[in-house]
Amino acid sequence: MASKLLLIVVFVFDLIAFGLAVAAEQRRSTAKQVPDSEQERSYCVYDSDIATGFGVGAFLFLMASQVLIMVASQCFCCGKPLRPVGSRAWAVLLFIVCWLFFLVAEICLLAGSVRNAYHTKYRGIIGGNDYSCETLRKGVFAAGAAFIFLNCIISELYYVCYSKARDNFQPYGGEAAVGMGTYK
Fold this sequence. Notes:
57% of the residues lie in helices and 5% in strands. The protein has 184 residues and is mainly alpha-helical. The protein starts with a helix and ends in an 18-residue tail after the last helix.
């Protein structure tokens, strides 16, 4: 049977990661152009950079959750063999999907955090037109939050299916050869 404590801890870590990703989306950096004192160029002034910290926090909590599930299930490839039933087939499929969702969520969170922390200084060209200040696109952290949510569901289902397939597995205990009768 699957460990209820592990499932609760993983759910709490995923919930914290989801909350931090949503907070990062809400608190993305914004910028405005301000002319310098000589009025020849303009530069960008950015507001708070807390979304980067939220994104990195969500990244770390999601990674901790994935590590817990993979250590508990011995990363599906190590440990004793699984019972050849439907739960094993589901565990294989969910294992692959779990890693896919995890990688997409981590890429969104990491790319969003890096891009949100990137601030340009001077954007204007002397005598030229001013360009807009570089900021993170809307929805990068939201995509990460969506994949965190999906990964939470899939990883817990994976662990439950893995546990069902692992429990009560008994290898064949009989002879490996053809049984022979007594000689008369």
